[in-house]
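User: Structure tokens for this complex, please. No commentary.
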Amino acid sequence: ILNVEQSPQSLHVQEGDSTNFTCSFPSSNFYALHWYRWETAKSPEALFVMTLNGDEKKKGRISATLNTKEGYSYLYIKGSQPEDSATYLCASGSGATNKLIFGTGTLLAVQP
Amino acid sequence: DGGITQSPKYLFRKEGQNVTLSCEQNLNHDAMYWYRQDPGQGLRLIYYSQIVNDFQKGDIAEGYSVSREKKESFPLTVTSAQKNPTAFYLCASSIDSGSRYEQYFGPGTRLTVT
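Assistant:
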């Protein structure tokens, strides 16, 4: 994988549903994996930065896992709420530079 | 309030004119970045700066120029050489250079060139 790929492209769920998204990234020369939440009319906001294989991070109902050997990360949202509606971006950093490669995002819509 | 400001929110220009997008941060961050977003594509890096008076080209630098004369400011000039300038532009900063540091984003500027 040469690029960062996210799936699905969009997701519509009902309030209370749990959901997850996938981010695939180049596993060679891996340095860091970022997750951002981007709400409409707002700035992207960092959720997690993960660097170690097997990392798991949690913030409230949102959690993320990282597998650097196979080059994927999962983002989980437990009990989705309407305020979780946003585009979720992942970005991979390779090497010691500060250049991130972003995926195209997963658009989540949570229906009340 | 600490953060990143970009101005203006919307910008309209005629083809052939240079235009400068403003980005200011009061987070005391060393590193700053400019990204471009186009429909159906991920954010793409235009230029980044690791420290004052230093900057490097990103993946799509052609037709753009930047300066970093002050730590808090990183203006982006879209020149007439940029073939497809109409896009949404995001500025970001991080406390230090290196991809392990989270980036803080501004609200963006939507540039339309006709």
